[in-house]
Amino acid sequence: MQSETKCAFVAIVGEPNAGKSTLVNSIVGKKVSIVSPKVQTTRRQVRCITEVGNTQLVFVDTPGFCKPNTSLEKAIEHNFKNSYQDADIILLVIDATSKSIEPSLKFLSKVPKETTISVVINKVDIAKKENILKIAKRISEYDFVAKTFMISASKLDGVQDIVQFLTNSARPSPWFFEPNTMTDLPMSQRLAEITREKLFSHLDKELPYSVYVETELVHETDKKAKIIQSIVVIKPSQKGIVLGKSGGMIRKLKYEAIKDMRNLLNKKIELKLFVKVKEKWVEKKVHLKNAGIID
After folding, report:
1. 8 Å CB contact between 92 and 14
2. String of b and e for 35-47 (b: at least 16 CB within 10 Å)?
3. Residue 171 pairs with which residues in a beta bridge?
């Protein structure tokens, strides 16, 4: 790359369900990070890459703020800290419909003052005006915040202003990834995330957050991809929930996952899904690694 190129690593942080993944996908222009209305859907830092002119922006979509208790939660918290500590720019995303933003304010009070950080007040299209103004007033008390944006990530309103700010803030640097890379997640993990998103979408409160999807095989030809995945749960009773009555639920998950996989790979998909029980996998490093939560 030529010397005039620029690059910036941008960490997207905030409370669960603030719209972090939706914002990243909106900027990148394609769904890369899993999106769900349920908390703690993102478990590890997911890097998404896009280019704007001569600038490469590398987004790190992080897990939401959480208090770690289990091994799974501790791994999530570890990934979160790693993601923002090495970033050039931090975007703190706040849900404009939230009744309390104390966790976000607590984060602001602890972040090093020399850090370049901006606040994104999201979901302004559905929030009450008085709530938006209240949040903006609280944020204005932190004079080191570079800028505050008011957006609707799902409708793309105000997103381009953030992109312009980031490109202006990026420093001269070689690009760290080849053009059009989009993400550094291995294909096996991207495929696993597609299926996991369907689990979160359809199983609602019945779904244990300890479930994970492991891609065991990806075999591609010019026109077809054969994919084998295992959905791992911790109790035999949860296996029945995932399978559904007469296998109805897993057929629905498979059908919807195939559609997204077809869009990703642009070829015919043959998907086989199995459900396995691995008790206490969240306490074992080997399974956390298989789940893509730790390296």
Report:
1. yes
2. bbeeebbbbbbbb
3. 7
Distances in whole angstroms, Cα of residue 168 to Cα of each of 55, 56, 96, 164? 9, 11, 26, 6
Contact between residue 196 and residue 247 where contact means Cβ atoms under 8 Å apart:
no
Kindly report, residue by residue over 245-294, the tens digit of the pLDDT: 999 999 999 999 999 999 889 999 999 999 998 876 655 555 555 555 54
The answer for 223, left when phi > 0, alpha when psi is -120 to 50, beta otherwise, is: alpha
Name the residue ranges covered by the structural domains of the chain.
Answer: 6-172, 187-290
- CATH superfamily of the 6-172 domain: P-loop containing nucleotide triphosphate hydrolases (3.40.50.300)
Compute the Cα dihedral for 252, 257, 258, 259 and give only its sign: positive
Architecture in CATH of 187-290: 2-Layer Sandwich (3.30)
Reported as a single tens digit per residue, the pLDDT across 210-238 is 688 889 999 999 999 999 999 988 888 88
User: pLDDT over 90 for what percent of the chain?
Assistant: 46
* Tokens coding 271: 């998907």
CB-CB contact of 91 with 151 (8 Å): no
pLDDT in tens, 6-28: 999 998 888 878 888 889 888 88
